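Changelog note: in this version the structure field was regenerated for every chain. One regenerated record is shown below for reference.
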Amino acid sequence: MAIKIMSAVYGTNKTAKNVTDKAQKLVNNGNDDITISNDNFGCDPDPGTTKIFGVIYMLETGEKRALCGLEGQTIDLIK
């Protein structure tokens, strides 16, 4: 199922990075799971602090969804 990432942010309440393009690349191969990590997003916006990932996306059906999770978690965009 095709997933279109509309917006994705990774960081803390002090600082965050737009990771929309990186999140889209993670799901372009048909994978619907995203592991929230510095490695996957290519940055550590607030070293020593647990980061939060938030994503707004659209499914192939046109349904829009939003999810969030903590660094170290894996979120399933289809579930």
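Spot check on this record: The longest helix spans residues 20-27. The mean pLDDT is 96.
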